[in-house]
Amino acid sequence: MVIMYLQNVLQYCARNSLMAEGKACHAQIIRAAVTIDTVTNNMLINMYCKCGLIKPARQVFDQMPERSLISWNTIIGAYAKNGREDEALSLFVKMQRAVVQDPVSGFTVSSVLCACAAKCAILECRQLHAFAVKKALHSNVYVGTALVDVYSKCNLMREASCLFESLEEKSDVTWSSMIAGYVRNELYWEALRLYCRGQASGLGQNQFTVSCLLSACAGLAALVQGNQVHCVVQKAGVGASIYVSSALIDMYAKCGSIKESYRVFSDLENKNLVSWNAMISGFSRHGRCLQVRILFEKMQQKGVFPNEVSYLSVLSACGHMGLVEEGRKYFRLMVEQHRLSQNVFHYSCLVDILSRAGLIYDAYNVIRTMPFEATASMWGSLLGACKNAGNLELGEIAAKHLFEIEPTNAGNHVLLSSIYAANKKWKEVAESRQVLRESEAVKERGKSWIEIKHQVHAFMAGEREHPKTREIYSKLDEVMEEMAKLGYKVETGHDVHDVDESTKAELLRHHSEKLALAFGLMTLRSGVPIRIIKNLRICGDCHSFMKYASKTTHREILVRDVNRFHHFTDGYCSCGDFW
Ligand code: ZN
Ligand code: ZN
Question: How many angstroms does the Cα of residue 508 sit away from the middle of ligand 1?
């Protein structure tokens, strides 16, 4: 009788995570019983696990004479949940060797799979998959879902999707896991398509799936789809969720619609750190430095303290606008006022701010004295700045490091050789060109995307694969002719190819964003803004091309490059030519 009473107390403690009471109850049980039976032991393990006390749970487990399936499941699950994947996996192996009366359940396998997902243990995952097939557990919906999750977290999308298709029974969690997997692997269209399929087979809406979809739309800069998901959000009534609303703010900002982004943000009643950060980073991406700083102050007035992410947006906004003193101030405030520690990204922003302002020795000093190993992006900022300043001394140092970190990036060789050229060191120019020719270094190919009628068209620089190639090129010629009248000239200084000037001009003419723009002009009716995504930083020539194009064609043009947004209207860009 006493034991039964104590069992009830134990379960109550487990449900409510009552640590002290649970321990006291354990003591009572030891006093009341000579030997503790398996059921009570399992309850003890469960209580300790629920209270987050894995060590005593394991002690109880280790002292048990005959352990049941539930004992194994509970302890393995606890290890997996508490980030101790190695123990979970090794216990699972032990469990296989131990004689467990009951057959292994789907629950055990799926919790061990969670452990595999967390540490990306592909080999173990495949073994478990084989094991599940052997035990006829692979069609179990929990196991199947866990497998889909593991494969997609290990970036094995083909395995994940094959498995997903083969599952007869799919829960909402299965669908969500697969959609999230696509988003994580940047397969955004696949995510959206799967969602539509899920809709047809009755998939319910939840915060998780909707946030994933919004990330997919953000990744594609697909505003039309993003708007549709926003409608779904409103219908399903999940808009109040802080995750969904932050994802909405982020999606609109990344799709170039900063106004809409701000509208969602303003309408939000309970703003937390995530929502403030989403809005601040949106403004930063759009180069709205003033708004960034205003919001940054405002959030603190409202009692929300900035974290590392907020500071990163503020610093990068200062970089975009060339605000050196402000940048330095925020960098200091981070530590002095908010007791945060600067990570490598904050340092990278600082180096960038100083380099852009031409303070190359200051930038170099930061690199030298910071507590991290300098990254390629830091040396890259410095090298770029040295090129602008014609500084050979630091340029050579930066280039030397870059050649080590990214030996296949041809851009670095070209930058260095143009510094030599500016200093009239012709022998070195010839030598570095020679090194470049003999090395494996390649320039990453520029690629741009434009979405027309729910279909994404991708263009590579100089490509001629598109079915409308002839029309595109002649449209481009036509636009350029118009622009030439206003004074546009191809700026060959931006090309890094080792070829003569006329070939350079030819290459620049057909940079991918120019092709995408020509195609956009052909297919989108007038008045519709043209949105282009680019995989690299937009070059100086394309930037001035877009400015002229926005004027001659009277179009609003949005280019999202790898760093930020450029919003071209009537001959001007929102970045103020500072990017
Ligand atoms: Zn270009
Ligand atoms: Zn711009």
Answer: 6
Task: Pick the closest to residue 148 from 179, 104, 115 (CA basis).
Answer: 179
pLDDT band at 493 (very low <50, low <70, confident <90, very high): low
Q: What is the pLDDT of residue 492?
A: 66
Among all bound ligands, the one having the nearest atom to the CA of 561 is 2
Q: Which of 24-33, 336-345, 463-472, 487-496 has the lowest mean pLDDT?
A: 487-496
User: If you measure from the C-alpha of residue 183 to the centroid of ligand 1, how many angstroms do you get, rounded to a whole number?
Assistant: 29
* pTM for this entry: 0.74
pLDDT (mean) for 528-553: 91
CA 394 from chain centre, in angstroms, equals: 33
Cβ–Cβ under 8 Å, residues 463 and 514: no
Give residue 540 CA to ligand 2 midpoint distance, Å: 9
Ligand 2 centroid, distance to 165 Cα (angstroms): 44
Distance 576 CA to ligand 2 centre (A): 6
Rounded to an integer, the average pLDDT of 371-383 is 92
Please report, for the chain, the start and end positions of each structural domain, with discontinuous segments joined by +.
447-573
Q: Say if residue 21 is exposed, middle or buried (CB neighbours under 10 Å; 0-12, 13-18, 19+).
A: middle
Tell me the CA–centroid distance for residue 571 and ligand 1, in Å: 17
